[in-house]
Amino acid sequence: MGYGDIRNRSDFTQALDKTEDSSSIMVIYSSTSWCPNCKAVEPKIDELTEEFGNEKHVLWYKMNIEEAEGVAQEYGVSAVPTFMLFKDGDMLPEETVTGPHHKRVRAMVEKNLPGK
Description:
The protein is α/β, with parallel strands linked by helices. The protein is built from four helices and six strands; from the N terminus they run βαβαβαβββα.
């Protein structure tokens, strides 16, 4: 399945619109091109995107915080990688995972799968 890209406010708004009044949740993987922890965790996150993709109604987006700086600042992304979960058009701040913790990302997604 892979990721959608968030490069600016418009990309973010379009992605967020897909979670409003729908049965999908959205995970945004915030990173940079130079982040060693992002590169280290990415293969495990790639596996999660395949496992929890369209069939399970989980939308995955990657946001380079240097390109989408305004969105990153608005949502308090101060370290990478950071994984944010959105449901019904809203961010669930208690579900944010900062750092290369793919098992915590899995638990976050499993806990919030549509229909649970």
